[in-house]
Amino acid sequence: MSLFLLVFLCVFLCVFLAVALAVTGDHEPKKCGKTTEGVISYYNSSENDELPNFYRGRYTGLKWECVEFVRRYLIATRNLTFPSVQNALSMMNIPFLTPVSYRNDHKIPVVFRSGKTQLNPKKGDVIFFHDRFTGHVGIVTKISGDTIYVASQNGTPQEWEGDDYWQTFKRTDNKIIGWWEL
Predict the structure, then answer these.
(1) Is the pLDDT of residue 3 over 90?
(2) For the CA atoms of 75, 31, 29, 90, what is the dihedral angle to 10 degrees?
(3) 132 band by pLDDT with thresholds 50, 70 and 90
(4) pTM of the entire structure?
(5) Pick the CATH number of 30-181 from 3.40.50.150, 3.30.870.10, 3.90.1720.10, 3.40.50.1260
(6) What is the spatial distance between Cα 49 and Cα 162, in angstroms, rounded to a whole number?
(7) How high does pLDDT run on average in the chain?
(8) Torsion, Cα of 52, 67, 39, 171 (10° steps)
C-alpha cells in the first residue's frame, strides 16, 4: 500500500470518528439545578437528547423532558412511577401511580386538584402548567404565602433561580392548570 493511500485512510477515519461522535450526541447535558432530595434537572439542549433515560433500571422518559424529571423524582423520592404518556397535558389524566417495587396491578389513586380551587398544593405535589401545545409539569418544592416554588426540567437553559427551585408562581397565576395531590 502506498504511503499516500495510508495517510488518506488515516485522515478519512479520523474525520469519520469525529463526525460520528458529534452526531451521536456524546456530550454532557446542561445541569440547571438540583432539588433538596438530590434530583438533578437538565436542559434538553440537543435533538440527540431525545433518547430514553433510565434511573435505577426503570424507564423515566425522553432525555431531558419535563415528564422525565417528574418520573425520575417520584422514583427517587417516593418509589412511585406512572404509565407512559405523550406529554405533560396527557399526564394530567393518569388516574393512578404504581410503586416500582410491585407489579403493575398494584395502583395508588391520584387526586387531581384544579388550579381554580381555593386549596394550595403542598411540597412534593406534581404541578401542571399551560405551555404551548404540550403543557409543562414540575414538582412543588415549597409554598410561602401565595407563592409556589417549582422544580422542573427543560423550561429554560438557565440555572435555577433558587437553591431548589426553577421558577416561582403566584397561586392565582392563570398558567397553573392544577396538580396531583400526593
Answers:
(1) no
(2) 50
(3) confident
(4) 0.81
(5) 3.90.1720.10
(6) 25
(7) 84
(8) 170
